[in-house]
Amino acid sequence: MAVETKTTCPYCGTGCGVIARREGDGQVSVKGDPDHPANFGRLCSKGSALGETIDLEGRLLHPEIGGRQASWEEALDLVAERFGAAVAEHGPDAVAFYVSGQCLTEDYYVANKLMKGFIGSANIDTNSRLCMSSSVAGHRRAFGSDTVPGTYEDLELADLVVLTGSNLAWCHPVLYQRLAAAKAARPDMKVVVIDPRRTMTCEIADLHLPIRADGDVALFMGLLAHLARSPALDRAYIAAHTRGFHAALAEAEALDDATLQALTGLTPAEIETFFRLFAGTTKVVTCYSQGVNQSTSGTDKVNAILNCHLATGRIGRPGMGPFSLTGQPNAMGGREVGGLANMLAAHMVLEDPEHRGRVRRFWKAPVIADRPGLKAVDLFRAAADGRIKALWIMATNPVVSLPEADLVRAALSTCPFVVVSDMSGTTDTAREADVLLPSLGWGEKDGTVTNSERRISRQRAFLTAPGEARADWWQMAEVARRLGHGAAFAYQGPSEIFAEHAALSAFENDGSRDFDIGAFADMSNEAYEELPSFLWPRPANRQGKERFFADGRFYHGDGKARFVAVSAQPAERRTADFPLTLNTGRIRDQWHTMTRTGKSARLSAHIAEPFCEIHPRDAAALGIEDAQLVTVTSPLGRVILRALVTVRQAEGALFAPMHWNDAYAAKARIGALIPGLTDPHSGQPATKNVAARAAPFAAAAYGFAVLAQKPGDLDCAYWALGKAEAGWRLEFALEEAPANWADWCRAAFGLDPSLEPIGYLDATGGDVRLAFFAGERLVAAVYLARGPVAVARGFALAQLGQSHGDLKARLGVIAGRPDAGRVDAGAIVCSCFSVGINQITAAIRQGAQSVEAIGACLNAGTNCGSCRAEIKGILHACHAAAAE
Ligand SMILES: Nc1nc2c(c(=O)[nH]1)N[C@H]1C(S)=C(S)[C@@H](COP(=O)(O)OP(=O)(O)OC[C@H]3O[C@@H](n4cnc5c(=O)[nH]c(N)nc54)[C@H](O)[C@@H]3O)O[C@H]1N2
Ligand SMILES: Nc1nc2c(c(=O)[nH]1)N[C@H]1C(S)=C(S)[C@@H](COP(=O)(O)OP(=O)(O)OC[C@H]3O[C@@H](n4cnc5c(=O)[nH]c(N)nc54)[C@H](O)[C@@H]3O)O[C@H]1N2
Ligand code: SF4
Ligand SMILES: [Mo]
């Protein structure tokens, strides 16, 4: 019998409600929860494909010590013994936890409690340091607390939505769809996108400001000065509810127009249009994400934005306010439990002795950390230079995602004892572990997450735990017990942890702290099971509220908000040797280091390779052609990527995705190129403005292969592997062509040495095509050329699942394209219905002139809708081409 479970998507901070349906035969399908207020039934491409990512391939199913399977008892004893010994010998600061915004609140709470209250160090940091810490620091400077004032509804109610440093269409797709729907219903609504690249998000923009890297502080300072000269300035609000306006304004006014233009790279007309629009619209929401946070001026960028909202009193009211878009599903929950090295639980302040005393009393803790711990980049440097003797990494893959990624890898081999808790035992980080602990993943674990609008939702289990995998909180509670803290960690389940967390949030609070969910302090396990999603705050004896700061009351001691007098500094990193700016970020269908989305063939079809976007003029100057392989080099390292020549990219700048890693590509771990430069206030690394250079990669042969079996270790200068419906897809290149391609293929792909391929060889052009069959089944088709391989990828991939009884069918594989009269789909745009760009352009040529019309004839864009921005982009491109 089928069972339906209401849960929450484990990917982005939009926090969509999901209904998972498990059939009697174990098959799982997912759909959006129509009753969930984050998504009202919508899901994006990643959410819709969740059912394809929960298989057990690559899963870590048993604890391992030094690569051998071990029992939980043995592994946990060892972890406790080594952490205990390190603390006894070198003090509490010799150990550290590095956790994640993908931990559930309950896991996070236990990790933070154990480290800060029982081990007695604040050496617990999280990948949220790379993600949200500049927003946290900015909020705390301005508001006296880390508070997101508004809700998603504000984006729909606004007359102007400014998106700065956010590729909403790809990174918060359902929120983007809500915004797009609101704009369609109210065409007067304006959207401004501020981003050095012309991203897919720009498809709904009325104005795109292609800002120079890190020009944001200058832009929003200029805006503040403009607002001060306009009727938009709310002097009464400033006087009643804020401090520091004049100092901030003085700095802003000192910025002259020429400097403003130089730092932002924008024309006077672009700047003027934006300033007028902002000043002239009362209902304005400014959303920001990693283009703001991941910078050496990230915190100042946040405050430059907040200054403009405070100056106009446009905060905490319907359709108005600054809005920090959180990335991970539980970035916010991590902040609520105080899981950063410089925070305390329940939004209390580590530096405040009264707060420390309060948390210690509540926890009945033997100690409490009394100074901030090491922030992520410094934490791994400390591991590298021997200061950290035992490190526990949980739900994050720092060998890929941290800057100085090679140093991080070296740090893990230097550090005497590294524990990794993950679902996968084969990540780049897991490979460096001394002890591997198998964790429950989405669908198996139980707890809560908080999304960008402060909405707490349940993640519920609907699958049985595979192998010996156990919840992260349980692993830590067991270690705590072995360290002698059994009584404080005697939880029977996540509901008890959540209730304790709720009780702490209300403990001696009385409205003095924003985070209060005291209404749930006595919650039973049954109530927790049924818990519908809710927005915090939810105090026990008072009314909750939708928005913060509507009353003009902030959390600094005097109740007033602070303007921060920021100043604009140039952030020019380029040098003669490294004359380009490397920007890094996300693509639509992959999640971070691909440990889960990489399992889905549909998601891997959208963009199947690590790439580097480059402007046509830069490409021409460097002798780089579209689809050629290129090296991208920084002072720290070098990667090999596929060139994507596009005017969406600004001149002088490159963009590369953060996703690919050593499990999916030869040399594409972009973190290895990024220096550990951080924001002085937040410690957040600057992953979007890196000096680099690019050059063509000298490949003697390019190859594309479809393979029935996953190949083992590949000995190619370049390779990128992706999941396909019936096997694997592989792009590769060699610096030297082998003497015999058939031999090479058999060895490289682990094929039966007795298999003889059919194929052809074009000696002059250099094209070679080989297909290996086992009976009627295709086991490998390999297409080789001296330059980028021109073969219909989708067609070749489809051959894997088909039988090839006759010679004609086999020769068709070699031809590498569909029969005459049939269109090859081309690169997949709509992953729900596998509709490619060639089909969409054909439909446009036949008269489909809108996203809806294309949907009507091809279904593209009619399910999850994540590709609608791209379809719009293709329509624009076709129209532009037709007009030329
Ligand atoms: N598909 C997908 N979605 C995701 C994720 C994923 O891995 N895949 N990850 C989630 C997570 S954890 C996060 S943090 C979010 C991130 O979500 P976003 O922040 O929207 O994503 P990014 O691609 O990192 O960066 C956003 C944009 O900032 C721009 N940018 C770079 N430098 C500057 C600058 O100096 N100023 C301005 N104004 N813009 C700049 C980049 O060009 C880029 O388009 O996405 C979440 N959603
Ligand atoms: N160059 C560059 N680098 C970046 C960024 C960028 O824009 N550019 N963005 C940064 C940002 S914003 C972020 S958030 C980080 C993300 O970077 P990471 O956190 O390193 O990336 P993930 O792939 O999400 O890693 C999550 C890991 O946890 C495992 N996992 C999943 N669920 C569970 C669970 O329930 N329990 C346990 N124990 N393990 C689990 C997964 O298998 C995976 O190995 O990357 C940062 N790095
Ligand atoms: S927008 Fe997509 S990835 Fe984000 S929570 Fe919703 S379904 Fe998941
Ligand atoms: Mo993130």
From TrEMBL:
Residues 2-58 form the 4Fe-4S Mo/W bis-MGD-type domain. Keywords: 4Fe-4S, Iron, Iron-sulfur, Metal-binding, Molybdenum, Nitrate assimilation, Oxidoreductase. Its cofactor is Mo-bis(molybdopterin guanine dinucleotide); [4Fe-4S] cluster. InterPro entries: Asp_de-COase-like_dom_sf, BFD-like_2Fe2S-bd_dom, BFD-like_2Fe2S-bd_dom_sf, CT_Nitrate-R-NapA-like, MoPterin_dinucl-bd_dom, Mopterin_OxRdtase, Mopterin_OxRdtase_4Fe-4S_dom, Mopterin_OxRdtase_prok_CS. SUPFAM superfamilies: ADC-like, Formate dehydrogenase/DMSO reductase, domains 1-3. PANTHER family: NADPH-FE(3+) OXIDOREDUCTASE SUBUNIT ALPHA, RESPIRATORY NITRATE REDUCTASE. Belongs to the prokaryotic molybdopterin-containing oxidoreductase family. NasA/NapA/NarB subfamily. This is Nitrate reductase.
